[in-house]
Amino acid sequence: MNTLQALFLSILQGASELFPVSSLGHAVVWPALLHWHVHENGPGFLPFLVMLHLGTATALLTYFWRDWWELAQGVLGLGTAHAIAESRRVFWLIVIATLPAVLVGFVFEHVLRRLFGAPMLVALMLVGNGILLALVEKLRGHTPRKSLAALNQTDALLIGCWQCLALIPGFSRSGATIAGGLMRGIDHEGAAHFSFLIATPIILGATVLEVPKLRHHDIAPGLWHLSILGAVVAGLVAWASTAFLMRWFKQDDSTRLTPFAAYCVIFGIAAFGFLALT
Hints:
Layout: H1 3-16, H2 23-33, H3 46-63, H4 65-76, H5 81-113, H6 119-139, H7 153-163, H8 173-183, H9 188-210, H10 221-251, H11 258-277
Helix pairs in contact: 1-2, 1-3, 1-10, 2-6, 3-9, 3-10, 4-5, 5-7, 5-9, 6-8, 6-11, 7-8, 8-9, 9-10
């Protein structure tokens, strides 16, 4: 992997991890389209992958630092009784929403990793992701929506179950969790906010699980340099993507996912056709 490829993949990770278009799907399909010999499951790619996740998680922590500071204060019992109770309530909602993907990912990790070698199948999954986003926007209707403050434990658990879809390359984690929030009656802004909050422990957890594997491989110094560069670039792009999306979902509460749905369907079909002909 050269510097140009590293920059491209870093920008791709920083944007597609937060946009509801599937970072895993793009990480599989784009190298195949460009005929890059990048092995996402290979030991040579592992340090780069770890640093990309670290950069993205850092961006999310930085952007939502007030939320995490309040949650930390609540867990430690600092502040007023009302603030402590509310912070602890939100903290447990995040824990509940995180558990399904952790459990399913642990059980089916090896099966799901095989999809990294099937870019044509992943391209079709991108189409499926687009159809899912479009269907959710249509099914949710135009009934009055509730805010994030009204989220309960059942909502969090079901949103967490939706997040399991993102274990399949081509289905977006943010797209699935936002869709889950919308189907539970949360407005776009609240669904996106909760989606980005629960993204942080998932991404950090994936990073921590991969770190011990680094001890078993000899990593070239040049790869570490590229990995650090990738982390910085992915983090900056992820922060900008989060800022844009929070404004995007705040503007109004109708069909905010539709442009992303159209993109996934068009790109997925085009990528499948190109890969089938080459």
